[in-house]
């Protein structure tokens, strides 16, 4: 079989519901890599959260983070590495207007750093975070640096920005951004119906951006590109890959465009078992 690009989402695809890689999944991915295939993480996670999994899997490929916003190799200088940061004026505007918009806290991230920003006048009840959200929004982690004095020259260039906003204020933030920055390619997205978290995202960058960069960089033929995912942020790469595979536990809207659906869920090593069958490992 010719060399394939196997692009894997992390949460609820490669990882089980406890956020861990099973021994079976690790073994299968390492065997495919050992056979010469390019196994690559393409995730919405920040580098802070994706790198430990990359290391656990002992991958040798570049990695795509922030839903396609950053592509780099953790161990060497990849010629085709890239970064599409969030627009500075938008980030600074949100920081300047956090109190009036009801933003109680922000988390800024890029490849090498994570910064917390607390609205000192807010009474944020961070107990309202969903059970798995503190991992992605560690606003109370005092080991992370805090941006307490915000001046233009101290605001970092970032690929990811997460806001903590009470549900009743979330529409206010979205409307403000559309009106204040109508020509900037960013949008704000709520994490879910019950979540107080919102993310700032680029409108013209997605996971397919990273998938295509990897394919072109390593000369992988289009028919040998596989992409695995479970949620709507995987939509572009599932649609763009020759083999767009959605997990059994995936979003129904994503399943509707899939080339195939795994027989087993992420809790049942669905990714590994699909790959074993597809690549004749058993």
UniProtKB/TrEMBL annotation:
GO terms for cellular component: cytosol. Signal peptide: none annotated. The keyword Lipoprotein does not apply. One of its GO terms (molecular function) is phosphatase activity. The keyword Signal does not apply. InterPro entries: HAD-like_sf (IPR036412), HAD_sf (IPR023214). This is HAD superfamily hydrolase. It comes from Weissella halotolerans DSM 20190. The lineage of its organism: Bacteria, Bacillati, Bacillota, Bacilli, Lactobacillales.
């Amino acid at each position: 079989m010719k060399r394939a690009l196997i692009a894997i989402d992390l949460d609820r695809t490669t990882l089980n519901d406890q956020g861990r890689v099973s021994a079976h999944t690790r073994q299968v991915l390492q065997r495919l890599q050992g056979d010469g295939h390019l196994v690559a993480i393409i995730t919405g996670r920040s580098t802070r959260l994706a790198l430990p999994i990359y290391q656990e899997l002992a991958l040798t490929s570049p990695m795509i983070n922030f839903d396609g916003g950053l592509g780099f190799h953790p161990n060497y200088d990849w010629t085709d590495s890239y970064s599409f940061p969030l627009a500075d004026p938008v980030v600074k505007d949100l920081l300047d207007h956090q109190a009036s918009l009801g933003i109680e806290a922000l988390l800024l991230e890029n490849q090498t750093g994570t910064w917390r920003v607390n609205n000192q006048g807010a009474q944020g009840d961070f107990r309202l975070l969903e059970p798995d959200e503190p991992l992605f929004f560690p606003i109370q982690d005092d080991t992370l640096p805090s941006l307490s004095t915000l001046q233009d020259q101290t605001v970092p260039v970032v690929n990811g920005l997460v806001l903590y906003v009470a549900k009743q204020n979330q529409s206010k933030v979205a409307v403000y951004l559309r009106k204040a920055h109508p020509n900037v390619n960013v949008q704000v997205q709520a994490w879910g119906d019950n979540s107080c978290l919102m993310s700032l995202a680029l409108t013209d960058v997605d996971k397919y951006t990273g998938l295509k960069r990897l394919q072109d960089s390593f000369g992988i033929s289009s028919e040998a590109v596989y992409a695995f995912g479970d949620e709507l942020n995987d939509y572009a790469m599932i649609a763009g890959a020759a083999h767009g595979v959605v997990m059994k536990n995936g979003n129904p809207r994503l399943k509707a465009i899939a080339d195939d659906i795994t027989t087993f869920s992420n809790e049942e090593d669905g990714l590994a078992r699909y790959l074993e069958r597809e690549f004749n490992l058993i």
